């Protein structure tokens, strides 16, 4: 991709596929493969998935297009974009910077676990399927105070290296091969998982909604997951949209990216939860679920260890194409708004975010007694504030901004490139942006907080 600080002569995506790859690269990551399955496991399975789809349709597509529209219109990253359209709103862009900071702090911890599991797979640890043994393996890693931090540092260093080294364009080119490979690999794992004895229980758990499981907290969790998974609510898609050419059809992109993202999340869910039931793991196992469950599946596949290595390498790649977009939002703010040098700002924030992530890592292991938000450990609490508070707030404010401040007419002109591109559902989108999405987000947000805390 192109440097966000290049204001004067702004580059554009060399091709449509370049943009789709970068935006899909940001969206597809640990959110799909690691977070979606364990969130579904913790929040009632099918009920959570049902809500996820409902919110995706009403809010996800709508906001994807809203962010891309603002980005392409202003050709600026979030803070600058808001400032250009209405100076008083620039602080909303800053909320996104804060969200990016918080998310990357724990994202990098999990990215570190992925690297650790590449090494584990290489050393042939994936030959057992006993839940207690696999849980013990994960537990021993995470309760070691130092080891996870070393891997957290390695993940952050890789992210930094890509952002400073200006090789993001190259990384995005590789994603043309590696992302489809990840998808194929996940489908194979899913097939193995679905053919295990007792797998149907997991399929039922994931796909048949039990509506009695729904409460405000579950709806808020699904809302946060849609934002997190699609990289919405913090201006990432504003930034990517800012490189789009006026002739590009925003509508297609706003549909394709969420569909791709959701397909990956569903396949991940269908790879993990059937195995959870088949082997007798606990679906409410939380953040460790991916790491505890999949090795059991690999142990039941021919060439399982090799599979395990390849899988975790591809997951690492997907995680990096997301983490660079997270760091980018923070770095772009300091480069664009505070005139910092790009390299310095990457180094400084890479380090600060790494340090900030340390408690999240320790909170899964030796500090697991520390509970901050409604019984959540440190990592979960940081995630809660970022994904369930800041991102929905950022998304709601963006809708209010477009619907009531900047105006739907301006947005329509941008989407259709002054009438040159046809978009028959324009008014539906307008109604969703102006009324439905902000009100729905507002209600879920308030009720969700009430149900979470009381
Ligand atoms: N969407 C990424 C994932 O699902 O892993 C995480 C993420 C990236 C969230 C970038 C927000 C963001 F701006």
Tell me about this structure:
It is a multi-pass membrane protein. One of its GO terms (cellular component) is membrane. It holds the Pfam family SNF. Keywords: Membrane, Symport, Transmembrane, Transmembrane helix, Transport. Belongs to the sodium:neurotransmitter symporter (SNF) (TC 2.A.22) family. The protein is an all-alpha fold and 454 residues long. It has a single domain (15-453), classed as Hydantoin permease (Orthogonal Bundle). Helices cover 77% and strands 0% of the residues. It contains 17 helices and no strands. The chain has helices spanning 16-27, 30-42, 46-74, 78-85, 90-122, 131-143, 147-165, 168-194, 199-207, 216-230, 236-241, 250-279, 289-299, 304-338, 342-364, 378-415, 426-453. Helix 7 packs across helix 14. The protein is globular. The N and C termini lie far apart (45 Å). The chain binds 4-fluoro-L-phenylalanine. The site of 4-fluoro-L-phenylalanine (PFF) has 16 residues, from helix 1, helix 2, helix 5, helix 10 and helix 14.
């Amino acid at each position: 991709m192109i440097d966000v600080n290049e204001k004067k002569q702004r580059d554009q995506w060399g091709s449509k596929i370049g943009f789709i790859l970068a935006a899909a690269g940001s969206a597809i990551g640990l959110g799909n493969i690691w977070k979606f399955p364990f969130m579904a496991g913790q929040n009632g399975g099918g009920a959570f998935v049902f809500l996820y789809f409902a919110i995706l349709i009403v809010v996800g597509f709508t906001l994807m297009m809203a962010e891309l529209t603002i980005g392409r219109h202003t050709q600026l990253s979030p803070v600058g974009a808001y400032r250009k359209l209405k100076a008083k709103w620039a602080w909303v862009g800053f909320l996104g910077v804060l969200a990016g900071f918080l998310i990357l702090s724990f994202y990098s911890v999990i990215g570190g676990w992925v690297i650790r599991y590449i090494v584990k797979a290489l050393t042939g640890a994936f030959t057992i399927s006993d839940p207690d043994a696999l849980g013990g393996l994960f537990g021993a890693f995470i309760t070691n105070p130092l080891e996870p931090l070393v891997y957290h540092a390695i993940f952050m260093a890789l992210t930094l290296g890509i952002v400073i080294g200006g090789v993001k364009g190259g990384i995005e080119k590789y994603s043309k091969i590696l992302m489809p490979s990840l998808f194929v690999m996940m489908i194979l794992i899913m097939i193995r998982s679905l053919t295990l004895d007792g797998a149907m229980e997991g399929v039922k758990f994931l796909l048949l909604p039990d509506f009695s499981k729904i409460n405000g907290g579950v709806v808020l969790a699904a809302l946060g997951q849609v934002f997190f998974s699609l990289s919405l609510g913090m201006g990432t898609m504003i930034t990517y949209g800012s490189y789009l050419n006026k002739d590009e059809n925003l509508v297609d992109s706003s549909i394709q990216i969420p569909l791709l993202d959701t397909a990956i999340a569903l396949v991940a869910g269908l790879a993990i939860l059937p195995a959870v039931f088949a082997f007798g793991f606990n679906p409410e196992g939380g953040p460790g679920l991916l790491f505890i469950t999949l090795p059991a599946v690999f142990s039941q596949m021919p060439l399982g260890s090799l599979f395990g290595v390849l899988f975790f390498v591809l997951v690492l790649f997907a995680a990096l194409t997301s983490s660079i977009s997270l760091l980018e939002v923070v770095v772009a703010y300091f480069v664009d708004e505070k005139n910092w040098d790009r390299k310095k700002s990457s180094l400084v924030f890479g380090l600060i975010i790494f340090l900030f992530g340390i408690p999240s890592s320790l909170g899964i292991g030796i500090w697991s007694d520390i509970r901050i938000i409604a019984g959540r450990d440190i990592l979960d609490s940081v995630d809660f504030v970022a994904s369930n508070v800041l991102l929905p707030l950022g998304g709601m404010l963006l809708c209010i901004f477009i619907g009531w401040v900047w105006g739907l007419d301006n947005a329509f002109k941008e989407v259709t490139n002054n009438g040159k591109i046809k978009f028959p559902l324009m008014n539906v989108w307008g109604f969703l942006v102006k009324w439905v999405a902000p009100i729905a987000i507002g209600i879920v947000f308030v009720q969700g907080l009430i149900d979470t805390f009381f």
